[in-house]
Amino acid sequence: MTTIAQPRSRPLAENRPRGSVRMLGPNWYASVMGTAIVANAGAVLPVHFWGLRTAYQVVWALGAVLLVVLFVARGAHWARHADQARKHLLDPAVAPFYGCLSMGMLAVGAGSLSVGSDVIGVSAGVAVDTVLWIAGTAIGLVAASAIPYLMVTRHQVDAGTASPVWILPVVAPMVSAACGPALIAHLPAGQWRETLLLGCYALFGLSLLATFIMLPVIFSRLVHQGALPVALTPTMFLVLGPLGQSTTAVNNLADAAHGAIDGTYAHAMLPFAVLYGVPVMGFALLWLAIATATVVRAFRNGMKFSMTWWGFTFPIGTCVTGAAGLAKHTGLDFYNWLAVALFVVLVVAWLVAGVRTLRGVLSGALLAVPR
Q1: What is the pLDDT of residues 113-127, one digit of tens each?
Q2: CA–CA separation, 246 vs 174, rounded Å?
Q3: Are the CB atoms for 142 and 207 separated by under 8 Å?
Q4: pTM for the model
Q5: In sequence order, what DSSP letters do the residues of 292-313 get, joined into one string?
């Protein structure tokens, strides 16, 4: 009986996916971004009832744990599989995801202050946010300059292969611009506050202008080459990232301006937040409609789960925070309802992506080494 059972068990074992950190790319940090933004977006909603704040704290803690686990795992990836890591860095389809590390750190840091401070204390929340903001901003600036440099000098980029993934490294400084204002009030009055405020505006401009360069190239590819491959279709939502995050940034900066800069400039920043945010949010809704239509089409064509599904989370979350900022500064109920509606979509997308990712990790399918 033993002799008969062994031949049958071997093929089954051989057919199981083999998990390995060798296949753990920088795109996995998108799960940190997508988790942390749920807590950050929920914290700015006008909806308050028992247990909600606790739920946000749990989600923030989960995002923090994911960040630590992935940071360690990615370190092991570089230490044990440097050849594969270099391939990722020189692959124009994978290298842009290095911007996700920065954004994951920034999102978790922002949550440490906005909701995590209820658990770890305000002083600890400020300390964690400060460390992660400084480190995340530095990494984001390196990614925003190094990845385009590699695309120009080292990557073999074929004509008509542009995708929304290219936005990832250049949008990282915009996340810094949106998260930095929360730290301004904790700095000494005077030069320190004004420097951080204007520094965040510089990060805003850096990312915005870089995005303006990328978007026409991406849309031109879509028009002339057709829809993205089915598996990459969720990346259409990445375009919402710089739109929602830039709206969030100008609103957060307007809130932080008073007491940080001369009153003349501070008073001008609030109208700018509204005059910039309203039309950009309008375009975000237009793009959301286009992206949703392409995803529906992809589902009809058999789109299966992949890690690109995390692209549904963080970009929508930035639109939640952007809409909430506009609601605060315009007083319009429309933006409150928009923020709540988008938050519901965000939570559903996060739950689906999270469950499917966990299932893929446990089965080994998502980390399987190709044969």
Answers
A1: 999 999 999 999 999
A2: 6
A3: no
A4: 0.92
A5: HHHHHHHHHTT----GGGGGGT
